[in-house]
What does this fold into?
Amino acid sequence: MEVVLSSRRLISDGSVVYAEALWDHVTMDDQELGFKAGDVIEVVDATNKEWWWGRIMDSEGWFPASFVRLRVNQDEPMEEYLAHLEEAQAGEEDQAALGLLLGPGLPCKEQMRTNVINEIMSTERDYIKHLKDICEGYIKQCRKRTDMFTEEQLRTIFGNIEEIYRFQRKFLKGLEKKFNKEQPHLSEIGCCFLEHQTDFQIYSEYCNNHPNACVQLSKLMKVNKYVFFFEACRLLQKMIDISLDGFLLTPVQKICKYPLQLAELLKYTNPQHRDYKDVEAALNAMKNVARLINERKRRLENIDKIAQWQSSIEDWEGEDVLSRSSDLIFSGELTKLSQPQAKSQQRMFFLFDHQMVYCKKDLLRRDMLYYKGRVDMDHMEVMDVEDGKEKDFNISVKNALKLRSLAGDEVHLLCAKKPEQKQRWLRAFADERRQVQHDRETGFSLTEVQKKQAMLNVSSNEGCFVSSSAVTRPYYDFLLRQKHPSLPTALPQQQVFMLAEPKRKTSTFWHNIGRLTPFKK
It folds into this structure.
């Protein structure tokens, strides 16, 4: 408290106050100030005891006061201080002095590992409390009011957060068993992440549903009784002053933070440490989880576009593409020959997961396509055909490949114009099989509700395509409305969940819909 008061006095007197970072502050938030251990921060505002406002070069933002220590001599010129710090880091004798900045009794790297381990444990416990508050403070109360909420509405608003809560409690128990209270730097927690790496995939469903939750909440919050009800739930549970949509954003942020925390942990784990290999493997595993969530997000964003493409095809027959497929792998023009006539036909081919659709171009309107058939890729084998005489069709071919059904009763000969086009198609067919296998392993599939909604989006707009970015626009609006919340003075920094305006750049979480360029005519 004396440090905070002294810093306040110095700032109020117009003095420039500097603090030195004790360890790294990694942030994904625009209004937080990120820095590395040893960085020097100019403290601009220290009125809040938990979070200060500071500046490094041209960057400004909030940072946790507990991550820094005020410089003992504020009058020391910046250049001299930085030079002294570099000397301390370079010399073995001064390394011990630098270690004192980080806490007594441990070498520098071990103290840093202790800090990271403690942060992981602390944030995990806070996160469990956060999930409990949502499940018991909101969902439990909502279920009592059948006059206000249907079970379907609650599923849309809260997604599978109860399932996440059950899993995270189990995960925390595993962490607690591996946590060394007396010597945290000796804790071996990497195996906990590895043991549960497939369980973390339940976040995919939550992240995919979150935009729908924001849309549903936005509708309800236009009615005063829902505003008052949700506020009463928050007060009854004694939760911090953040709106429900803010609380529901936290699991999305949490799953993205694990790779950052593990990267920090790996940095301060010696290769000789018993936990090193597990932490390294855990970091890769959690990165893969994040990539999987991004990929599933992209796939779900594509389905409106696939439905719109199908609606533009004339003379469509049979089931919808979305009944079996959710991803366009490749498309292009090929010459098709089928038995028994071996008649040559120019067709446009669209390779999806599980199936390939082929269409005929209109002679006058080249942008208009007529449905001509499809091939079930689950029961086909793809064969490379050498240039020259093809024995099944008894004709000479060039740049050809063949699709043969596993039962042998269906054969298609496809010819590209150039050798490189043929190779690209062969790679595409291999990609399609890998995609199908990956979906089976990860359990990815579209729900009937998602398929129906995509087709409804097309029909309700009478051919005017509504992209998924337009459908989820309220989600962007929600993010853009969020500002840095007032910081509660009685809470540790881990309990403050930031909801700042996102950076004005394309995120991998949203932009991948642009991959479907083959649909452009």
User: Anything to note?
Assistant: The chain has four domains: 2-101, 108-305, 327-442, 450-519. Residues 72-82, 91-104, 462-521 have pLDDT under 50 and may be disordered. The radius of gyration is 29 Å. The first strand starts at residue 17 and ends at 21.
